[in-house]
Specification:
Blueprint (H helix, E strand, L loop, with lengths): L12 H5 L2 H11 L8 H10 L1 H11 L4 E2 L6 E3 L6 E2 L4 E2 L1 H6 L13
Antiparallel strand pairs: 1-4, 2-3
Helix pairs in contact: 3-4
């Protein structure tokens, strides 16, 4: 068993308050998905309730695409799980979008 180590860095409260994960947890509460007071609580929910977790991800991150009304996860078999069947997504738009100026550099060599 590894030896217990002292914490070498702790983010200040203002950094925690402004973190994307903190904002996401707050959004989950406001949107009625649940209240998660610790990272472990949120992680446990994300692996136990796959459909609601991935629904929240689609919604909170405003995934650019057309989501079908069908189930989020049509088949859980691995390999071969089928996610968001009937939905469409433009990967380039999702990867390169994000409110940047039209003339902003996307890839730099």
């Amino acid at each position: 068993m590894p030896a217990e180590r002292d914490t070498i860095w702790q983010p200040p409260p203002e950094l925690i308050a402004d973190a994307a994960l903190t904002r996401y947890a707050g959004w989950l509460t406001e949107a009625g998905f649940g209240r998660f007071s610790t990272y472990e609580d949120l992680w446990q929910w994300s692996v136990e309730d796959l459909e609601r977790f991935w629904t929240s991800i689609w919604e909170v991150f405003d995934v650019p695409g057309s989501r079908s009304p069908g189930p989020v996860l049509a088949s859980r078999s691995m390999p071969g799980a089928r996610w968001f069947e009937g939905s469409t997504l433009n990967y380039a738009e999702a990867a390169l979008g994000g409110g940047h100026a039209d003339d902003a550099c996307a890839i730099e060599s």
